[in-house]
């Protein structure tokens, strides 16, 4: 039976094309999108910042588009497993990927991703930014970034705890060392929480962690913030100066969070998603909710976000190669 049907398949496809439809019904990006549920694949476990953001955006997106939006966690290999799944999904707008800056770091760390980040995805929108912060124990003699840099000498490197090898926080420290000549010693942890525990206890001289994770300890007087990594001050801690403000010109590293689709998704579908999510992020209630979780709401066009991703892939790849950071 299959052999008999095969000759007619091309005719069937042509008849569909003549009617202005594709076999999936939506890949052409017509006005029927979306016609069935959308899945957002998150490359990290439930409960983390990226997951919470995906669920907050997904719930509102469901209201905007009138179709169920399901969040599916596919953690592993620093996000590469989930990314590979979406890279291989049909480019019809029904499978989205929620990622953070690790997506741009991984190409320089992993030799065999199983996908090409610049080729296999189309950017939709940058949703939020999360700056990192340099912190020291409240009992530390270091009170400014200048003092920390002065203490980081070849004769006595300054240890810094990060949220893990290859994380934005790790690279924030490496970037600072290369920009200033300071001698820093990386102490990786399995997450920002464990890193904060040891920095607060004075086991490590300095930490570089997400501003959201450190904010409660800073407010409680258990940690002292020296600088944020973002190009502008964080609304979460507006009195804390940036690294650039303290003399390290051009220094900036924000951990972005955004949505991607498989490459070749119709531009009309990408634009529809971008407009819907941008409207969500502009909502004052959503903005207040995101800020409470430590996010700085953001919005971008697909082209702007793609340009940001590509630039970060290039600069992070150069940095990881220069420090010899490899995971496989």
Could you describe the 3D structure shown?
By secondary structure, this protein is an alpha/beta fold. The protein is built from twelve helices and ten strands. The chain has helices spanning 2-5, 9-18, 49-65, 80-87, 102-109, 145-151, 168-180, 192-200, 211-219, 267-282, 284-292, 302-323; strands at 38-42, 69-73, 95-100, 121-137, 158-162, 184-188, 206-210, 223-228, 254-262, 296-297. The termini are far apart. The model is unreliable at 1-29 (pLDDT under 50).
Question: Topology, please?
Answer:
Elements (H helix, E strand, L loop, with lengths): L1 H4 L3 H10 L19 E5 L6 H17 L3 E5 L6 H8 L7 E6 L1 H8 L11 E17 L7 H7 L6 E5 L5 H13 L3 E5 L3 H9 L5 E5 H9 L3 E6 L25 E9 L4 H16 L1 H9 L3 E2 L4 H22 L5
Parallel strand pairs: 1-2, 1-3, 5-6, 5-7
Antiparallel strand pairs: 3-9, 4-7, 4-8, 4-9, 4-10
The percentage helix is 40-55%
Residue fraction in strands: 15-25%
Number of E-type strands: 10
Oligomeric organization of the protein chains: single chain
Overall residue-averaged pLDDT value = 89
The backbone outline, from C-alpha atoms, is globular
Element pattern in H and E: HHEHEHEHEHEHEHEHEEHHEH
How large is the count of helical segments? 12
Secondary structure category:
alpha/beta
Uncertain ranges: 1-29
- Give the CA-CA distance, first to last residue: 47 Å
* Largest sheet descriptor: 10 strands, mixed
> How large, in whole angstroms, is the Cα Rg?
22 Å
């Amino acid at each position: 039976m299959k052999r008999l049907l095969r000759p007619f398949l091309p005719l069937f496809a042509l008849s569909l094309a003549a009617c202005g439809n594709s076999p999936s019904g939506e890949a052409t990006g017509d006005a029927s999108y979306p016609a069935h549920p959308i899945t957002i694949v998150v490359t990290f476990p439930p409960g983390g910042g990226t997951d919470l953001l995906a669920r907050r955006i997904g719930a509102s997106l469901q209201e905007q588009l009138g179709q169920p939006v399901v969040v599916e966690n596919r953690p592993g290999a620093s996000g590469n497993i989930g990314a590979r799944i979406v890279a291989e999904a049909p480019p019809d707008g029904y499978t989205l990927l929620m990622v953070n800056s690790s997506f741009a770091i991984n190409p320089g760390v992993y030799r065999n991703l199983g996908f090409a980040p610049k080729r296999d995805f189309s950017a939709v929108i940058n949703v939020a930014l999360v700056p990192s912060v340099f912190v020291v124990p409240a009992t530390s003699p270091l009170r400014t970034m200048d003092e920390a840099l002065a203490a980081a000498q070849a004769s006595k490197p300054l240890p810094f705890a990060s949220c893990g090898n290859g994380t934005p926080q790790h690279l924030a420290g490496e970037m600072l060392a290369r920009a200033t000549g300071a001698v820093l010693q990386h102490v990786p942890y399995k997450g920002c929480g464990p890193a904060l525990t040891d920095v607060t206890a004075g086991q490590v001289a300095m930490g570089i962690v997400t501003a959201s994770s450190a904010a409660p300890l800073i407010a409680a007087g258990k940690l002292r913030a020296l600088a944020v990594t973002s190009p502008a001050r964080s609304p979460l801690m507006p009195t804390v100066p940036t690294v650039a403000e303290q003399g390290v010109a051009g220094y900036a590293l924000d951990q972005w969070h955004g949505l991607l689709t498989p490459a070749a998704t119709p531009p009309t579908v990408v634009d529809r998603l971008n407009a819907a999510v941008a409207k969500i992020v502009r909502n004052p209630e959503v903005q207040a909710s995101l800020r409470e979780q430590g996010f700085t709401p953001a919005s971008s066009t697909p082209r702007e976000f793609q340009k940001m991703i590509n630039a970060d892939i290039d600069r992070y790849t150069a940095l990881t190669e220069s420090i010899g950071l490899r995971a496989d």
